[in-house]
Amino acid sequence: QSLLDCHLRNIKVTLAWIPGHSGIQGNETVDSYAKEAVETGSLEHYHCFFYDLFSLAKSELDSGWQRHYDRSKLIKGRYYSDIQPSIPTKPWFFRYRLVDKQTTSVICRLRIGHTCTPSRLHRWGIIQSPICVCGLEEGTEDHILFNCPNRSVSLYNILPSCVPKPIDLKSLLFLSSINKKVLNSLIKFIHSQKIKL
Description:
Blueprint: H1 2-8, H2 27-40, H3 54-72, H4 78-83, H5 101-112, H6 118-123, H7 141-147, H8 155-158, H9 169-178, H10 180-192
């Protein structure tokens, strides 16, 4: 009310933040008035600008989205939720802008479990046999990346020493979401072996 009265009388008021109260005369009085204004102030002259609410809204949206994700992964999307237990602020490929589209597509397919392997294609009724073209075993993602003799090198051979062996694809993808070296190795392998899934 006092600020409004000053404004109506054309009195210019400048507010300044003081980091402490000790040794500055009058600060204790101002502090007591500030506390009183919080408790008894009028809402008629209060303005809340939309940009003041951005941080609150973003936090609430993020936590609400995570709660929904936690509930929905109990019904569907369990494979992906094991790889990505929480919603990231940015997609995995945000750090890899120079990776070509084909490699990004293969890793995305591996992460969601929708690849064009013999095993998956057989399950969808597209081909008659789930056996890999090498003829040794079922053509799963794990077989193609780690054990297929048609590859000149196994993914095991280029993984960093921090990765425990043996490891399956799901565990490797989980590790790659938190360890950049692991993801770099996977990208290098897919690129060098010209893997199309």
